[in-house]
Specification:
The protein is an all-alpha fold and 149 residues long. The chain contains eleven helices and no strands. The longest helix is centred in the N-terminal third of the chain and has 13 residues. The model has no long low-confidence stretch (mean pLDDT 93).
């Protein structure tokens, strides 16, 4: 007999499986458990309209995984740029599809981990990297210098 935990782990496993049919991902995207929604947000086959909806989820980890997903549309990344949670902004900065203008904006974020993610993004413009190489946080400086050289 399956327990509630078994059902949860099964739903999580299905949600993260890249072979899960799209209609099942759509269904799981409304699951009451945020852990399931997190896995849907991470799945590379999650439809764009579902990613858009999940980008406003109450759970910051769901929004973080939307920000990380390479299929997240640019307009959603722009929306997540101002998310109250620094983890979400950090993953916007890490996303290889984040536009340069957003990376420049995030390079002045109050949270040093967000600035570090900007310094790690290969699409960050050189002038922004130079500015980050003089950041008050030594880790940000090191990552920026590594991309400069």
């Amino acid at each position: 007999m399956l327990t509630n935990d078994d059902h949860y782990y099964f739903r999580c496993g299905v949600a993260q499986n890249p072979n899960t049919p799209v209609d099942k991902l759509v269904q799981l995207s409304t699951d009451k458990d945020s852990g399931v929604r997190r896995n849907v947000a991470r799945n590379p086959n999650t439809p764009v309209d579902v990613l858009v909806r999940l980008s406003t989820d109450e759970d910051f980890w769901v929004r973080q995984y939307v920000a990380e997903n390479p299929n997240t549309p640019v307009d959603v990344l722009v929306q997540l740029l101002t998310d109250e949670d620094s983890w979400v902004r950090r993953y916007v900065a890490k996303n290889p599809n984040t536009p340069v203008e957003i990376l420049v904006q995030l390079s002045t974020d109050e949270d040093s981990s967000v600035r570090k993610s900007v310094a790690q993004n290969a699409n960050t413009p050189m002038d922004t990297l130079i500015t980050l190489s003089r950041d008050s946080n030594w880790i940000v400086r090191e990552f920026a210098r590594a991309l400069i050289h």
